[in-house]
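Example S7 (structure tokens).
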């Protein structure tokens, strides 16, 4: 099977590593990829949201299966374009990808399907939004309605913080078009976990779960990010609980999407809060998470490519997902200044030394090679240092030992990834 994997982040590096192990694979192309994926296949310099360019590449390389990694190509219609070109694609249509592309759409689907989620209101102008938070009070969650690369959510603990978020998004335009409309929700309380499943029509097959660490600083302080680390499996959310959450939060959504004439086929990522009243949906994403994918996929023992091919065919009856019984952890190394203006251009050394620690794997995201062949940082989240072990405590020690061996003066990271799960495990 000739495969085109779309994307350039740590998620795509981890996916490429899993796909490269498949006996079904004949050739792997990654567009645009990064220096890490280049060791697993052939990178092609086509941007992830360049749908026409990706289709042209797929035709040129006689691709059998397109696998979109990030959300941008899905929301831009890559699956629809593949269908028109007669190329299989393991991702949802543009209409179904609105589950991630629009917070309002997700809330409307939840209300129609009876899926438990926070009470919400949508606003298209700053004035009414400000009036609402002043009368409603805090805490509230302010969400940009559109895609904002993981930076469009502010959990406001005070009215002033909510006002600032609304002003930033709707008046100052800090998130561009994504923040021209906002959804304001009641703030759910509990442990947040990420649940993943392969979906086709009304069928959902459990992949697994992880727990992300969103905020930039130790102790869950500072602004939200795209994710600073993850553990898998989450403490207190076992296989039975994950299946029950699929029944409550995912399968009703799939039935509603079929009813609407926009069936969902692909990977669903349900961000949910484990509240005292039971699991409630925070949001849907239409792809694997980052850094959750890195933590999940280093535990994967079954064939990812076979599962994704089944997704593309819309037949999950024989899909088999199998993980090791080990624990895993992913710790993100970001560039100093992230999530604001990250410092770029710094040279990163000693990844090979980091991976010499037993169980450690380093996945690259915001990296490139300079003219001298040095690995340099080009973005916000740059590396994900991952580790597996028989206990979460051991995996955590290994991951941080790997980080200690990496020479990158501009790198920053949280020192407490996994600590909350360790405390819960006792």
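Recovered sequence:
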């Amino acid at each position: 099977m000739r495969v085109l994997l779309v994307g350039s982040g740590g998620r795509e590096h981890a996916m490429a590593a899993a796909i490269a192990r498949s006996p079904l694979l004949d050739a792997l192309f990654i567009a645009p990829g990064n220096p890490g994926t280049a060791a697993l296949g052939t990178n092609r310099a086509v941007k992830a949201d360049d749908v026409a360019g990706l289709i042209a590449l797929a035709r040129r390389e006689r691709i059998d299966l397109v696998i979109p990694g990030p959300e941008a190509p899905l929301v831009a219609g890559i699956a629809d374009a593949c269908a028109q070109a007669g190329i299989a694609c393991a991702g949802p249509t543009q209409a179904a990808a609105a589950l991630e592309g629009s917070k309002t759409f997700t809330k409307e689907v939840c209300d129609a399907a009876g899926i438990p989620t926070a009470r919400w209101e949508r606003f298209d102008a700053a004035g009414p939004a400000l009036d609402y938070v002043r009368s409603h009070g805090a805490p509230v969650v302010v969400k940009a309605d559109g895609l904002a690369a993981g930076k469009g959510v502010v959990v406001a603990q005070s009215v002033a913080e909510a006002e600032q978020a609304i002003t930033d998004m709707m008046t100052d335009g800090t998130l561009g078009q994504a923040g021209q409309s906002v959804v304001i929700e009641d703030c759910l309380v509990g442990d947040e976990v990420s649940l993943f499943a392969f979906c086709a029509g009304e069928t959902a097959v459990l992949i697994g779960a992880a727990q992300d660490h969103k905020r930039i600083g130790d102790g869950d302080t500072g602004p939200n990010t795209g994710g600073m680390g993850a553990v898998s499996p989450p403490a207190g959310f076992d296989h039975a609980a994950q299946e029950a959450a699929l029944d409550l939060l995912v399968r009703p959504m799939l039935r509603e999407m079929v009813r609407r004439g926009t069936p969902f086929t692909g990977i669903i990522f349900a961000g949910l809060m484990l509240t005292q009243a039971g699991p409630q949906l925070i949001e849907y994403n239409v792809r694997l998470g980052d850094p959750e994918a890195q933590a999940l996929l280093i535990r994967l023992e079954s064939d990812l490519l076979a599962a994704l091919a089944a997704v593309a065919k819309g037949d999950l009856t024989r899909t088999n997902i199998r993980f090791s019984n080990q624990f895993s952890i992913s710790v993100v190394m970001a560039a100093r200044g992230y999530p604001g203006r990250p410092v770029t251009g710094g040279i990163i050394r000693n990844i090979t030394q980091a991976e010499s620690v037993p169980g450690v794997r380093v996945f690259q995201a915001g990296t490139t090679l300079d003219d001298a062949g040095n690995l340099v940082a080009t973005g916000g989240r740059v590396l994900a240092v991952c580790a597996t072990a028989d206990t979460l405590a051991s995996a955590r020690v290994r991951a941080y030992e790997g980080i200690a061996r990496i020479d990158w003066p501009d790198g920053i990271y949280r020192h407490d990834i996994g600590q909350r799960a360790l405390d819960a495990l006792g």
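Notes on this example. The mean pLDDT is 95.
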